[in-house]
Amino acid sequence: MVDEARARELAIAAFDAQQVVLGGARELNDGWFFPSVTKGPDLFTGVIVNKRTGRCLRVRAHTPLDKDPTLYDRGYQYDGYDLVVLGIGDLDQTVRIVMALHVVTVDTYYKNDRVYRVGRPLTEAEVRERLSKLPCIFSGGFIFHIDELEHAREAGWMSFKVFEYRGKD
């Protein structure tokens, strides 16, 4: 178990030590949150250190975690996610939420003696098709939309789990 002092050391190491000043620790169930002041571009407003693993998640400015670090305790502990939709209470609202995530699919094609892989957003029809077969997985960097996912869960529009996204499409 990572205590506050060790968490502070890990948090400082997550940044260039010359460019960060950490504030007081806020204890979460799963981690330690340290607000930060950085010199230079203000991309990050803090860091959360996992109590069990010591893994650091730098908190990006203007994200739901920036406003509510307790989202970390609800599983939002990564930069990229696999969202596994397990059930749907309101299909139209679920589709709206998934479309707001800007999920990308990769089209692969052959032309001029080359193989091309081109990312493009999923269409509404493709989202509906995927959601017709549960469980259904969407992957991406949803860090700016986790509050919308939590709202969807609380409203009963869909049930889901989130996991760390580790691969390439």
Automatic annotation (TrEMBL):
This is Uncharacterized protein. It comes from Mycobacterium dioxanotrophicus.
